[in-house]
Amino acid sequence: MNTAHGIQSAAWLLVALPLFSAAVLLLAGKRADKWAHLVGAAVPVILFIYAVMLFFSVKAESKGNREINLHLYQWIVVGTFKVDAGFLIDPLSMVFVLLITGVGSLIHIYAVGYMAHDPGRRRFFGYFNFFIAVMLLLVLANNYLAMYVGWEGVGLASYLLISFYFDRPTAATAGNKAFFANRVGDVGLSIAIMVMFAYLGSTSYADVLFGNAKLTQGVAAAIGLMLLLAACGKSGQFPLQTWLPDAMEGPTPVSALIHAATMVTAGVYLIARSAPIFDVSQAARTAVVIVGAITLLYGCICAFGQDDLKRVLAYSTVSQIGYMFLAVGLGPGVYAIGIMHLVGHGFFKAALFLSSGSVMHAMNDRIDMRRFGGLWRVMPITYFVFVCGYLAIIGFPLATGFWTKDKIIEAALDKGGTSGWVLGICALAGAGLTAFYMTRALVMTFHGERRWEDDVHPHEAPSSMTLPMIVLGVASLVGGYLLVFGGGFQHWLEPSVGPSVEEGVHTVSPVVLTLLTLVVVALGALGAWVAFGRKPIPITQPVGVSPITTAARRNIYADAFNEAVLQRPGQWLSRALVYFDNRGVDGAVTGLAAGFGGGSARLKRSQTGFVRSYALSMLAGSVAVVAVLLAVRFQ
Amino acid sequence: MSHLLLAETAPIHAPSVAYSSLSPIFIVLGAALVGVLVEALVPRAERYAVQMVVTIGGLTAALVAVGLLHNTAETTVAGALAVDGAGLFIQGSVLVLSVMSVLLIAERSVDVGSAIVASAAVVVGSPTDRRLARTDRVQTEVFPLLLFAVAGMLIFPISNNLLLMFVALEVLSLPLYLMAGLSRRRRLLSQEAALKYFLLGAFASAFFLYGLALLYGYANSVDLPAILNASKASPKSDVLLYVGLALLLVGLLFKAGIAPFHSWTPDVYQGSPTPVTAFMSSCTKIAAFGAIMRVLYVGFNATAWNWRPIVWAVAIASMAVGGIFGLTQTDLKRVLAYSSIAHAGFILVGLVALDKDGIASVLFYVLTYGFSTMAAFGVLMLVRDADGEATHLAQWSGLARKSPFVAAVMTVLLLSMAGIPLTSGFIAKFYVFKAAFHVAAPLVVIALIFSAVAAFYYLRIVVLMFFAEPPENGPTIAIPGWSTAVALTFGMVVTVVLGIFPQPILDLAAKAATLVG
Question: Does the reported pTM lie above 0.80?
Fold first, then answer.
């Protein structure tokens, strides 16, 4: 592993700078209100410029030398256990750094316009910069413990941002929900780290991942499953997915940042980074694949029951991340494809979220699609960006999804055997469903007759919002092609996740599969058009619908399940504990306190204030001292 | 005729005096004499400033002298005084803390004049008294009095001779009795406190003297090493030895404010002017523990098995009295008084160890406790209402809203007294308990329980300051003058720094943990 030199040694700035600016913005108080958003938006742009320079500096190294270790300082020394604080700059982390800073910058700039009239704008940008800082720490750390700090930081930042409008009960609840779901995952990560320490004696990537001689099957499975739990929490995967749609309560730029560029990709990063562990344990990898397949279908089905545009997008995120999990779970050779889809998803999902934010902005913060309709006329730019994202996500030929998602379907089928077929068909069905719910959203929002109320006057957003949207829209159209062009992206990632398996025996020939996928997608889109495009959309949710629709509207009963199985027994348990605490523990404590207090009050009377009684007590004490000494001596 | 005969058979030689080793004492006594002359010769208007310079100058010079002596370990004046590590550490602590007390006494901006009365001899409530109370006249004799008391405190912990120790005890006590009566506000309470302190102090001194006489009867000497040798070798009955030790201890425990000889503490602490209370609760206590340590370690090392139970007993009694009585006090000065009683118990736990670790832990404890209590009384001076200091607990409720800074400072000091980590109080308790654990594990467990009880009433004040509604006509927070600010900041900084980086002072205490016999 190479040591950082030149520009690479300044990589600590990637974390330190946004952390510093966040501290300044949050601590400066009201006097910073005037310039806070400018500073807040400038920081990620500067980081992006630096990240590009860093990228070229890494690229200039020969292929075998692109894993660069930047040692910062010795962080923890406890006996034989040592943890260095340091960064690992390698192709994988570079991809994430570029994605986070690049898409992050655009979202920051968009937020300048979006949050222009919000009284909490300074706080918002403070949190935003903090988010960027901890997310960069997460992907740059060179050991699991430092990554854990970033991991927790991301959880905290997401909590703060989701419940940004903390005076709204729904937002506060959503923040709590996100935090709790994340905590469940965090437990997994901390257990994984403890297992690493217990069995491998180290938590650094260098020892755990690359010196894995000691990694036995069982240990790898334990670590792998725990890491998967952590990844599920952070990335909103089954069974910890329920927080993600609720997280839409935050301001839209938050949704874009959390769902497109940063937080939810952390789980994918974790698994891709820990590839050597999953390579050892087949069981852990199978679990990843199953989670991915379930989630991708779950997200699709839930998405078409939603009337809230942002919730549709949220469930689409759940399902797209499912695709990524599926890809990274398929193992060596497919990691790069998962990461590629992640980057493409970063573009098109950001475009979709930002344009839906623009719609929301125009519609007085209303987000019910049944109240939209016909918006393409009044918001042409937003419409254009949304369509770009739409084409990319459904995998329209030559748009991003076409390149990246189809490869995942292909890889799933190529896994071979029954499992390959099952996974492949799941992925294929997911593509059709994606087309269905995205077409529904497009039609309900932008087409058909106007259904908005009289007090709403839709208008196009200011240029500070539209410009980043256009950039992302274009990126989601052509980004995918640029990624796959000449296999450059996969070759770039080779040092981190191993070579991609391009050639080999295909279960279904790529051309046939591509055509098949297109047919499925077209069927999905057409179905949605038939169902929603040709007849007027009712303003209220129709009742008496099919059981599938009902289930989809209710998130396939995931919340109900959580409430019945986890929340209620949890409440009973906590009530029982409170009862025990009040009666048992507190009883003992207050009883003791009352005893001492009562004793004190009674004894206090002996302090009369009269010298004669003091002298008498001294005399008694003296007699006692003499008596005790003599008694001890002559016992 | 017989006189002549005696003189011939036992000629008296003047003992050699190591003047340099005793220089701190001479400097302080010299400064005190200069202070007396200042009172006589300098015009009233300039006295205050001149006394300040003389007092602080004298104490600082003595402190420098102690610093220069740091490697000394010798006995002098025919073995009556032992200048050694532990003695010098105690002397240094007393000097540093007495400088801080002087700074608190010198505070003139929070009250007219200072916390010290204009003229102590004027009848309380007389027209003259009322007239003087409005002027900024101050009884500046308090400075030489303090210097004499400090001189006594410097001799007290290094006396290897019980007679000399008794003289030192009186030298330090008599000025304190006077100082206790010098309060500017609530003068009757102050004078009552002074009288009580004097009467009970005299009572305790009598015990000390009686014990001394009995010990002389036993060992034919009042030198501690001689008593030790006698207790090792002598085949004769040791009733005299133990009764003597018991009575001696009564006198010493009284000065250190240890139960059951503590009853003067709350009344005197409450009545005395607050800076004087700060001085008593830190410096007197340190000097008294220095003396107790010397008596027990040098004079009675060989009989430890017999006196240890009594130290156990008074330690437990002290912790219990301090902890339990403190719970229902409503006056902050009394709360701090009971806290000092409880702390004295904790320090005794360290004394039980009877080894170098024990000495070091006691030295560290008395120093850190001195700083915390000094600063806490300093804070007390700032919270005032029309009648002077507002020391009733009810007046402190909601203080954090009025002055978050003062409340935060007080909180840190209270947490230190409660022994919460990251403060010096925690480190001090930890080392005392650690030193005692291998010889007195049950005592340490009891001490832990009582530190939990005591923590309750410290935290009660914290809760009161931060979470209670402020009263209607609540007290005001005075802006301290420079001298109080310096003393407070210093006490506070030491409390925090010794909680985080205690090692240098711990090393110093460990190095100083030698007692020359």
Answer: no
